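idk why but the lab printer keeps eating my pages so im just putting this in chat instead. protein + threonylcarbamoyladenylate:
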Amino acid sequence: MTEVLKVNPLRPEKEVIERAAEIIRRGGIVAFPTETVYGLGANALDENAVRKVFEVKQRPADNPLIVHISRLDDLYLLASEVPEIANKLVSSFWPGPLTIVLPRSEIVPDVTTGGLWTVAIRMPSHPVARALIEASEVPIAAPSANLAGKPSPTSASHVFQDLGGKIDMILDGGEIIHGVESTVLDLTTSPPTLLRPGPVSVEELEALIGKVSLHPVVVGESEEVLVAKSPGMKYRHYAPEAELVVIEGRPELVRRKMEEILLEKKMKGLKVGAVVTDEMADLQVDVVKVVGSRKNVREIAKNIFRVLRELDAEGVRFAVIEGIEPKGIGLAVMNRLVKAAGHRVIRV
Ligand code: TXA
Ligand code: MG
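predcted complex ->
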């Protein structure tokens, strides 16, 4: 049985948090809102609890989890070395959507890190996430609270769709803020390597610490050719029912290309869809999903995982996706879209 409890996202009720923390302390699993996406939390230091997280998500054992903390002291407990650059980053971006990868300490179990010698750590800013970690009095390992291969959940109902009945509790704190998962930065290389683009942009990181190298997967290279540095990279993140194609370039050309491809697929009798910005909302297609204005990338980021879920739910068999500018959080959005499309991208 999965208990779903509403919680005030700004001022989480003590009794609610205490019940959830009790579950974490005794080795159970609680889904909770963070500022990025909903997470699936367990005591990061309890092997059995973490193993359960892998099981219910059907996540491969070599894809490590991010450990979430609420006090800076815990960074020094979990990492065996904290270089100056880490201090600089966390004083600017924590609490918030930045995950850093550092050499792990002995207290972190193998299951949590998928056997790696490093550990990924982040201090979330969402009041519910913080309150839960504090009340649990342990660091919380939490992948996104979706089944492996599904889009990350941006609402409690997405979590329920994937994991209802399989976990102890879902804290429903309503909407998330960013809509794409945290930026993951590996600090064991010099310069640091961006493993996953997210809400903290490359531009912001570089303004603070100088050059950041982009892992090939970030710039859209296919996973198969990579030696996986971040094991999560080699797994297809979202395997939609629909065949997806991202089309990028000048808006007029993108529109023309979309119309051409949609017509062709429609003639084959397929239910077709499109994921577009406001500016292209009038496209003639069976199912159109509007993600927001091209001028407001933050809004697009917030909607993207939801519309991908909706395409599947509505039985779309083929969909075009309008590419957006890969700047700021736009890089994270494009990274997720290109993955969802299995690297089918057309540039016009
Ligand atoms: O925003 C987020 O980060 C959300 C919320 C819940 O905090 N969590 C999340 O976790 O997205 P997950 O498990 O879905 O993604 C974690 C990513 C994976 O790509 C994983 O491979 C990578 O972080 N990762 C974890 N530990 C790592 C490590 N030691 N070295 C390299 N990559 C690591
Ligand atoms: Mg995930």
